Amino acid sequence: MKILAFESSCDETAVAVVEDGRRVLSDAIASQADMHALYGGVVPEIASRKHVEAIAGLTEQALRDADCTRADIDAVAVTYAPGLIGAVLVGLSFAKSMAYGLGVPLIPVHHIRGHIAANYLAFPELEPPFLALAISGGNTLIVDVRDYTDMEILGATRDDAAGECFDKAARVLGLPYPGGKPLDALAQESKGGVYQLPHAKVDGAPLDMSFSGLKTAVVNLAHHAEQVGEPLDRAALARDFAQAVSDTLVPRAMEALRQTGRKVLVAAGGVAANSVIRGDLERACARRGCKLYLPPLRLCGDNGAMIGAQGYYEYLAGHTAGMELNAYATRDIAD
Ligand code: KG4
Fold first, then answer.
1. DSSP single-letter state for residue 209
2. Per-residue pLDDT band at 23 (split at 50, 70, 90)
3. What is the 162 CA–ligand 1 centroid distance (Å)?
4. Are strands 2-7 and 75-81 parallel, antiparallel or unpaired?
5. Does 227 fall in a domain?
6. Whose CA is nearest to atom 23 of ligand 1?
7. Confidence class of residue 169 from pLDDT cuts 50, 70 and 90?
8. Which pLDDT does position 33 carry in this prediction?
9. Mean pLDDT throughout 63-78?
10. How many CB atoms lie within 10 A of CB 298?
11. What is the residue range of 167's domain?
12. Rounded to the nearest whole angstrom, what is the distance from the C-alpha of residue 266 to the centroid of ligand 1?
């Protein structure tokens, strides 16, 4: 079954063709990051307009790269939530018209379910049940993936997402948007251990997380150093910051494995590209005797193929939609 898949929830327009949920026939992506870098973050209205400009051409490219015609497409999958509402609406409207025009089913896909499903593309043997640590620009979740479309949130951030925190920390360190990748590179220049940063705990919810205090601490440290004219060891601060995020995420993922008795952990989302977090997850899972799946870097960030992968399993579960399908800025992954 060939699925034409659309992703437009943030600043990447992406269209892919995926066969039977596991085989990527094409994966066309147009990133707007350079444009938003001028403003230090995503400008939602610009993101929507750029999606409108890119999506038709990318669809042609995705079909061409997959060596497909429209007649070969069996269904259309699309991110319908969560994300920037105007941005999501562009992909959704385009996907609806495509499904209507081709006379094929329309499959709504939750963006974070898609991030998790990116692992099905990289690891043919991977099947639920497993635990997922989904860490992206807008979401930070520990999810029990009981089956392809049956999920339960075990832990979540109470405020900022891990990626948002990386982007803000990078900004005060003078790094370009999106800051996670350049901060990761800067952090590799230091062993850290210089700056004391907070590690927040949420009372009565050991698997929940909070990153806003950490973000504020980094901003205050950098501003204080600037105001009093003290030198700032930027690489050490980047390293200590990445370590603080990892020290929040990794022990909670291990605790979730302990509580559920699951033996497999899957990482997902843009922040899963972080080298400190990847290294810590590898060591922690080896100690627990658990199998760890780390998506290849190209599948960590937003892409259309992951929506095609999850879309296949949503279709098998009977989750299709009519033309009344709406976009949502927020939506529970378990819904
Ligand atoms: O999953 P993603 O591409 O978009 C969302 O669905 O939100 O995640 C984007 C986030 C950004 O905050 C970006 O700075 C972060 O992932 N990111 C990283 C790294 N590469 C991307 N954060 C830490 N280390 C990285 N190497």
1. B
2. very high
3. 8
4. parallel
5. yes
6. 180
7. very high
8. 92
9. 98
10. 13
11. 128-298
12. 16
